[in-house]
Amino acid sequence: MKFYELSRTERIQQLVAQGQLDTDSAAYLLTKPALTDDLLAAITENDLGQFVLPLAVANHFLIDGQSYFVPLVTEEPSVVAAASNGAQRIAAGGGFQTLQVQHQLQAQVILTGVADFADLQIRVDQAAAQIQTVAAAAHPSIVRRGGGLREVQLVRQKNDWASLNLWIDPQAAFGANLANTIAEAVAAYLQVQVLQGSEQVLAAILSNSGARMQVRVQGRVPYNQLATAAQSGAAVAAQIVKLNQFAQADRDRASTENKGVLNGVFAATLATGNDLRAVSAAVTAQLQAQAQLTLATWVDQPEQQCLQGQVNLPLPIGRVGGAINSLPAAKISLALLGQPTVTGLMSIIASVGLANNLAALRSLVTTGIQAGHMRLQAANLAIQAGAQGKEIAALTTALNQQRQVDLALAQTLLQQIRQKKEH
């Protein structure tokens, strides 16, 4: 049986047998324990309970020569199916390759009342060594781990504003609290020792631009992985490229194509306990700043009989800290991935985005997006119709045998299933 055809218990047992999960993690997933009241109170405010989302895995991922089952948290079954589908096609072409990855967080000390920027630049340059000392003293543990302040940039802004940008290596963490601590310490030093006259510190805080938390991943798809019964692989590749080029010229289409990338990116981000809002803010900043409208690009390579895709993403994430260390399921997700480095995790998450993008584009230029989408949505429609327990599977099967489905049809079929059961 294929992996997606197994029961939940069978999937967990297979992952244990393959060494992907340990027995403690398997027991946790099988028993589905709730978060304790103490943990809830510690990680949120005014807690009422839990809002549960499914934890799934996408398979067939080959990334930088390593095979992965990638954990995804999403209520949308087509996201998981598309990720596995796209990954399998890219694996046939050698898998995903990381072309570039960097992991530095920016903090800003925002200044106002700057009348002479050139003179301020001289004073900042003269204080460079002391700024490094202040930053190290503010968070000595990050220095001991090999991280800390790496670069200081004074940037002229509009009016009488300026920004002292601090580029920080947070090591395995995302580093929000680290960046804020260093920024506030440097701001206090500047206000007393460097700024003059009307110059004032307006604020000191991290930036969520993700400008140096970037990853670029590439994947190739052989033509034979794109072909359908009605279209050759070369024809499908050409259509995918045209659709991607249209998105690069049309904001309305680009927004939807980018959403397809983020379907996978967000699901993997959530599964590993990372800050979805930070990733969203960074992606927004990148799209606003760059000339290109899409996160992913596809080019045809007929001489190599393949389609080549690339995704370039800001991913302000971490491997430790915050909810990553607190949520049991997040720790299980990272264990499932083999405890990757933070840059390795960035490559994994970006690869999921590119896989989802490929699956969506191929569907759009071949069978259309709706057929597969509605087949996977049949279970949700069954639940909306009132199916319970084993009725859900029975009604889902019945719905998938219909050409067109809606809630009214689902309710009618459910009544028929119940009437047969009574007799």
Automatic annotation (TrEMBL):
<dbReference type="InterPro" id="IPR002202">
    <property type="entry name" value="HMG_CoA_Rdtase"/>
</dbReference>
<dbReference type="InterPro" id="IPR009029">
    <property type="entry name" value="HMG_CoA_Rdtase_sub-bd_dom_sf"/>
</dbReference>
<dbReference type="Pfam" id="PF00368">
    <property type="entry name" value="HMG-CoA_red"/>
</dbReference>
<dbReference type="InterPro" id="IPR023074">
    <property type="entry name" value="HMG_CoA_Rdtase_cat_sf"/>
</dbReference>
<keyword id="KW-0560">Oxidoreductase</keyword>
<dbReference type="InterPro" id="IPR009023">
    <property type="entry name" value="HMG_CoA_Rdtase_NAD(P)-bd_sf"/>
</dbReference>
<comment type="similarity">
    <text>Belongs to the HMG-CoA reductase family.</text>
</comment>
<protein>
    <submittedName>
        <fullName>3-hydroxy-3-methylglutaryl-CoA reductase</fullName>
    </submittedName>
</protein>
